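Lecture notes, part 5. Sequence design as translation. It can be helpful to think of inverse folding as translation between two languages: the language of shapes and the language of residues. The source text, in structure tokens, appears below.
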């Protein structure tokens, strides 16, 4: 494929497979969940948020491309914080604080669903072990994130009395960060995926990442909508 055809193929994955299509997100954004169910979502999503800097550090640690290392480094700072900016993980903890969850409990990940942990661990291993082009391509779900964040901000503010601007600060920040990150990663993949094998690997990597995100919502729906909460997992009181 030409670089332009590869980009079109990558972008086509979002409308078919991105997790904005999952029924759980429809419930979340339309105000159909009880507070305890929203708490469960935020607590489990923290597992993913906390793993992002580790995933990115593993990519940098095996990368010989200085330009890629320099660009990728700010992703760690975006989540872990730098200087006065405490970062995205802190903003996510502000979200869980605002939902009434104990911060130490959230950080411990003790109440997370087993499927959440397995999905996140699979993503970290993928980035650590797969070819570099595939590791970079797996981040391209960020191409599709801004529209989801916009819907989430509007829906949660409109539909939940316990959500305010402080709670949604994480998503507002990602409206700027995600397009910047996705733009660089997309150009890197287009420039470096030259063979059929490399291009198919990039497409498969992005599909894998959409599976990781979808699996987390499957687990949440099964546990907190269907009601099959596994032993040891968070149990809502509201």
């Amino acid at each position: 494929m030409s670089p332009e055809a590869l980009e079109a193929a990558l972008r086509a994955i979002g409308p078919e497979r991105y997790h904005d299509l999952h029924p759980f997100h429809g419930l979340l954004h339309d105000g159909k969940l009880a507070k305890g169910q929203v708490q469960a979502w935020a607590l489990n999503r923290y597992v993913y948020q906390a793993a992002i800097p580790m995933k990115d550090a593993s990519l940098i640690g095996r990368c010989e491309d200085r330009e890629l290392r320099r660009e990728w480094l700010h992703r760690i700072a975006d989540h872990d914080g730098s200087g006065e900016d405490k970062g995205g993980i802190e903003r996510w903890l502000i979200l869980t604080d605002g939902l009434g969850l104990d911060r130490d409990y959230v950080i411990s990940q003790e109440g997370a669903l087993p499927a959440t942990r397995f999905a996140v661990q699979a993503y970290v291993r993928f980035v650590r072990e797969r070819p570099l082009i595939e590791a970079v391509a797996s981040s391209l779900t960020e191409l599709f994130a801004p529209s989801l964040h916009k819907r989430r901000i509007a829906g949660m503010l409109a539909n939940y009395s316990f959500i305010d601007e402080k709670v949604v600060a994480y998503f507002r920040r990602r409206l700027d960060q995600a397009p910047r990150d996705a733009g660089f990663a997309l150009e890197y993949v287009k420039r470096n995926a030259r063979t059929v094998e490399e291009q198919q690997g990039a497409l498969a990597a992005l599909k894998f990442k959409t599976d990781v995100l979808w699996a987390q919502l499957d687990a949440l729906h099964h546990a907190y909508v269907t009601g099959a909460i596994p032993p040891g997992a968070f149990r809502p009181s509201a």
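The translated text above is only one of many valid answers, since several sequences can fold into similar shapes. The first helix runs from residue 3 to 17.
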